[in-house]
Structure formats: C-alpha cells, structure tokens
C-alpha cells in the first residue's frame, strides 16, 4: 500500500494534483505551494483514488487523459464513494472538443482548464470552487447538528422519501422511536402505510399550513406526535423532514436527564418537582424517604447551578415540551 504524507489540519487547503506528466506536476506543485496550499501528487488513477480516500483533499486537479484509468473513470469512482463525493474536481485537459468537456462535467467535474496550464487561471478557479464547497459543507454540518440536537429535547427527526416512505436519514432517537412504536429499524426502513398516507396527504398542502401539520398516534406506550416540515436545504426534491416526539412521563424524564446531564433518579425527582410536588409527595411517588429526595435535590441544584427549588422547577419547565 502506498504511503502518503500526514493529513494536515482541516483549516489547511489541501490539493491533490493528478497527472502522468512530471513537468506538469512540478509546475503546478510549485505554483500552489507558493500560494500557500498543501499539495499531494499522483501520477495515475489508482494512486489518485488511494490518496484521495486517505487524505480527503479539499479539491482535486485531474488530468483527463492518462494511461490506464483515465480522469473520467477516476471521477466516477470518487463520486461513487460517500467520503470523497463532496470533493470538487477540476479537469485539466488538452481536449477542447465539446463532447469531451461535456463528458468531464457529466462524470462529476465542477470545472475544467485547458492545457497548456496557466497557474493564475487554475488558482482563480480553485478559489471559487473551494469557497462553494466550504459553504456547502458548513451548511450541511449545521443542519445535521441542529437536527441531532433535537434529540436532547425529546424530539426525533428523520428524512423520508415521499414516494414510498423510505427512511433516508434519522437521528439516534428517531431510530429508537421507530423501533419502539412501529417495530421497524435501521436506515432504508419504510414507514407504516397509515403514516405514509398521512405524509402524502399533507405534502400537497404543506406550504399552506401556518404551523407544521401534526398527527398524534396513541401507540399504547404513550402518545407519539408527528410533525411534518418542509425539506432541509440539503435534501433532494421529493423528500420531507418528519419530527417525532413521544408524549409520556418516561419521555419527559428522559428529556430532563439528557438536557441537564443528571441521573435517571434525579430526572424523576426534578420532573415531579416541576409538577409542584413537595418532598414528602415526591418520596411517596419514587419510593424513597424525604431525606433521600432532599439529597437528590441538592445534587440537582449543583448541576443546574441554582440555589432554590423554584429556580430548578423553572429551568425544568423551560426545557420540557409544552
């Protein structure tokens, strides 16, 4: 297996140049190095695929015509791998016929430069595509983080395909709720027929709703509330975001436990405190002594950074779903 230089910190701009002509590699390497880029090189398609998979460069400059595996095939393979698919690829080609340029873009390239290579032109085009790719990655990361953060508040989100109800993406809590309430598990699972029918009915009028359409299902283990949202920016056409929330005492206590980083028993005590119960009542409910409840409350106050039961109850109420 080939050895490649260590992967730099992700704030560095890492470029992979692929060309079977050493003079081309040397010229571009020197120009990019002088411009502040970190540069990797490969002289054939197989080496390019291995290097890209290991180093995950920010951008690839790829010769279209090489012996063996050409640049078109290299691009198709990079785009078929989820890890390397987002990397922008700029073709370097001496071919100016329209059919070749169309083939480069069809394979997955974002741009092309013609030979003989002009370093200033390459740098300018790279700057544009690096900025676009960086913004796209940031938006996607923010969207994933925002949806995953819903788990801490007892909300579970998943992306579904409207046509057949197939689950394309889900948070950990969504996976658990699907398994518990519907007996389905894993990515590529399909929503139950009645849920899919509701999604399809609501999808046609989604833009007309002032609030996300809501459906409450009584599953015998507490109610499961479904809310349908427009697709996130990175979702493909024909997909919708479905947010689920379990409405039960158990789910609420789990929300408190995750949200405040407290133990399960502390979450139970805090839940009943938020319901206005006094220590004696809480002790009866959770089957312990009032003194034990007091000790739990002392630890809860310390973890929440408050000094009174009123402040703790207020924080709990603010965290709980309406």
TrEMBL record:
Ranges where the Response regulatory domain occurs: 14-130
Pfam families listed in its UniProt record: GerE (PF00196), Response_reg (PF00072)
UniProt cross-references to InterPro entries, sorted A to Z: CheY-like_superfamily, Sig_transdc_resp-reg_C-effctor, Sig_transdc_resp-reg_receiver, Tscrpt_reg_LuxR_C, WalR-like, WH-like_DNA-bd_sf
Modified-residue entries (4-aspartylphosphate), positions: 63
Swiss-Prot/TrEMBL keywords: DNA-binding, Phosphoprotein, Transcription, Transcription regulation, Two-component regulatory system
Chain ranges of the HTH luxR-type domain: 255-320
SUPFAM superfamilies: C-terminal effector domain of the bipartite response regulators, CheY-like
Protein's recorded name: Response regulator
Organism: Acidovorax bellezanensis
Lineage: Bacteria, Pseudomonadati, Pseudomonadota, Betaproteobacteria, Burkholderiales
């Amino acid at each position: 297996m080939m050895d490649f230089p260590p992967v730099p910190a992700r704030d560095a701009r890492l470029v992979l140049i692929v060309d079977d002509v050493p003079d081309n590699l040397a010229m571009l390497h020197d120009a990019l190095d002088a411009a502040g880029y970190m540069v990797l090189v490969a002289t054939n398609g197989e080496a390019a695929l291995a290097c890209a998979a290991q180093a995950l460069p920010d951008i690839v400059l790829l010769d279209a015509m090489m012996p063996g595996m050409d640049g078109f095939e290299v691009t198709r393979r990079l785009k078929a791998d989820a890890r390397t698919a987002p990397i922008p690829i700029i073709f370097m080609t001496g071919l100016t016929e329209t059919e070749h340029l169309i083939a480069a873009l069809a394979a997955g390239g974002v741009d092309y430069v013609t030979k003989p290579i002009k370093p200033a032109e390459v740098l300018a085009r790279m700057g544009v595509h690096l900025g676009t790719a960086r913004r796209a990655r940031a938006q996607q990361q923010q969207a994933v983080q925002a949806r995953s953060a819903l788990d801490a508040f007892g909300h579970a989100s998943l992306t579904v395909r409207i046509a057949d109800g197939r689950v394309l993406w889900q948070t950990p809590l969504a996976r658990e709720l699907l398994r518990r309430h519907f007996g389905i598990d894993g990515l590529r699972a399909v929503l139950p027929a009645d849920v899919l029918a509701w999604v399809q009915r609501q999808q046609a009028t989604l833009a007309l709703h002032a609030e996300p359409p809501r459906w409450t299902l009584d599953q015998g283990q507490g109610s499961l509330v479904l809310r349908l949202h427009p697709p996130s920016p990175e979702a493909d056409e024909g997909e919708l975001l479905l947010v689920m929330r379990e409405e039960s005492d158990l789910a609420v206590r789990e929300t408190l436990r995750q949200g405040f980083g407290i133990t399960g028993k502390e979450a139970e005590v805090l839940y009943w405190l938020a319901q206005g119960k006094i220590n004696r009542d809480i002790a009866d409910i959770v089957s312990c002594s009032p003194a034990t409840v007091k000790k739990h409350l002392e630890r809860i106050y310390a973890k929440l950074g408050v000094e009174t039961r009123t402040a703790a109850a207020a924080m709990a109420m603010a965290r709980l779903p309406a």
